[in-house]
Amino acid sequence: MRLTCPHCGERDLREFTFGGATLTRPEGDWGPDWDAYIHLRENPAGLSREYWTHDMGCAAWLLVERDTVTHDIRAVRPVGEGAP
Amino acid sequence: MRFNALRVLKEGLTGNRGWGPHWRDPEPKPAYDIVIIGGGGHGLATAFYLAKEHGLTNVAVLEKGYLGGGNVGRNTTIVRANYFLPGNSEFYSHSLKLWETLEDDLNYNVMHSQRGLFNLYHSDGQRDAIVRRGNAMINQGDDAFLLDRAALEKKLPFLDYDNGRFPIHGALYHPRGGTARHDAVAWGFARGASDRGVDLIQNCEVTGIDTEGGAVTGVQTTRGAIRARKVAIVTAGRSGQVAALAGLRLPIESHVLQAFVTEGLKPVIDNVITFGMGHFYISQSDKGGLVFGGDLDFYPSYAQRGNLPTVEHVMEAGMTLMPMIGRAKVLRSWGGIMDMTPDGSPIIDRAPVDGLYLDCGWCYGGFKAVPGSGFALAHLLATDRPHDSATGFRLDRFTTGRGLMDEEGKGAQHNLH
Ligand SMILES: Cc1cc2nc3c(=O)[nH]c(=O)nc-3n(C[C@H](O)[C@H](O)[C@H](O)COP(=O)(O)OP(=O)(O)OC[C@H]3O[C@@H](n4cnc5c(N)ncnc54)[C@H](O)[C@@H]3O)c2cc1C
Ligand SMILES: [Zn+2]
């Protein structure tokens, strides 16, 4: 598995750290939405939208579309550009 | 199918042509009292203890592939009871006691070998933590000994004690820890359950969970619909997918864990050695292969294979700990899919759908749990009350924050364990 950082190009997996599924952060105080946000997961077998950081490279946070069954990377974008 | 010395000798001399199947291969019936989804270690053990402890035999285990083809046949087979936190410690203590009589209970050789397990420490702080853990184990009624460097060197002369980064100061020694033959565990439980009347149905993938008015009524499978009063999801890394069939989302992320085995060598490593700082553990199988593994790859995966950076890390850790293994050739490596919970501890509980039960979240430590989990889930299915050894494995602990079992003290959050 190699990721193509939009800033640095295709780089080794060692340079990246997985940062969790892309979820919408709830508004307001603690409640079921927060519980779900922190604990419950879609845990998809197939296409997964997730955060990674290029922490050993340019340190940017990235939005990645990845297949969890084949490890194919479909898209990598900077977080600022919105969900892939 | 039974074994005895005379039969083994006779079959050995006549080309091993007389052995028969170990369990029946029945057609699924239209309805059962209890359906267990998943024919791994936990599902098969649950079926066995339902029959043995509770006399419930109108039970089916539905397995999408073949029995024992999942993680139960893919792990590094370490069996131990050196957990620290209440909730976990009584459960693993109970499970180890079941292991100790398992071969008699099953009349099956699972090659359970209590060869002793060493947990290394490398600093004063780690020694203090290990003493605390050892005391917790002793209070639980299990065995733990603190060994200093001199005592450890007598037992494990081949470690690199003076490594610059991780000098070895000693170990916590757990003599009752060890290994077992993983496939035999699945086969033994399968035979025991089948002999008592449980139907083990292979090549039968559950594709739907039927509910009516908030209660389970049965399952849809690739071999037709099957009605059931109670359904248990015991599908390890696939728990999230199967729970989704009932409209549930679980506090689980599936991750890949890799393991490795070398070519067969003469006996050289007599015990199980765990090197926590390097995320490395090793033992030698009875065939002679060095069996070892490391940490998760740390990204969600269903691929049953990992990537090379983790392979490299595990090899480096092995070489750091015991350079003598450097010339052994690695024969195979593989991966399994782990059902990771936020606190790294499991769930055995009723699901928020009547008649639906969950046994999941075993992370990378569910092999040692096979008898204990089967026993506790069977008790829950039969009586609707948790077994005394498993009252801590509640699904709602993440919501309430009460009773979290974060053994590593990292926080109850995904991707930390
Ligand atoms: C590399 C590795 C090393 C490990 N080392 C250790 C160790 O040293 N010590 C330890 O204690 N633990 C260890 N573990 C963890 C342990 O193997 C698992 O926690 C445990 O085996 C999981 O429970 P199981 O045996 O029931 O799982 P599995 O054997 O995976 O059983 C689940 C079954 O469910 C079936 N299934 C899934 N979906 C469906 C469906 N829709 N319909 C029907 N059936 C379905 C699967 O085919 C599978 O057979 C390790 C795991 C791995 C991968
Ligand atoms: Zn970059």
Automatic annotation (TrEMBL), chain A:
Pfam family, any one: SoxD
Origin: domain of life: Bacteria
UniProt record, GO biological process: tetrahydrofolate metabolic process
Name recorded for this polypeptide: Sarcosine oxidase subunit delta
Annotated source species: Pseudooceanicola atlanticus
GO molecular function: sarcosine oxidase activity
InterPro entries hit by this protein: SoxD, SoxD_sf
Automatic annotation (TrEMBL), chain B:
SUPFAM superfamilies (alphabetical): FAD-linked reductases, C-terminal domain, FAD/NAD(P)-binding domain
Reaction catalyzed: sarcosine + (6S)-5,6,7,8-tetrahydrofolate + O2 = (6R)-5,10-methylene-5,6,7,8-tetrahydrofolate + glycine + H2O2; sarcosine + O2 + H2O = formaldehyde + glycine + H2O2
Keywords, in A-Z order: Cytoplasm, FAD, Flavoprotein, FMN, Nucleotide-binding, Oxidoreductase
A Gene Ontology cellular-component term: cytoplasm
Compartment list: Cytoplasm
Cofactor(s) for this UniProt protein: FMN; FAD
Enzyme class, first EC level, given as a word: oxidoreductase
EC identifiers of the protein: 1.5.3.24
Domain spans labelled Rhodanese: 34-78
Main location: cytoplasm
Alphabetical GO biological process terms: tetrahydrofolate metabolic process
Cytoplasm recorded as keyword: yes
Gene Ontology molecular functions: nucleotide binding; sarcosine oxidase activity
Similarity field: Belongs to the SoxB family.
Protein name in the entry: Sarcosine oxidase subunit beta
Taxonomic classification: Bacteria, Pseudomonadati, Pseudomonadota, Alphaproteobacteria, Rhodobacterales
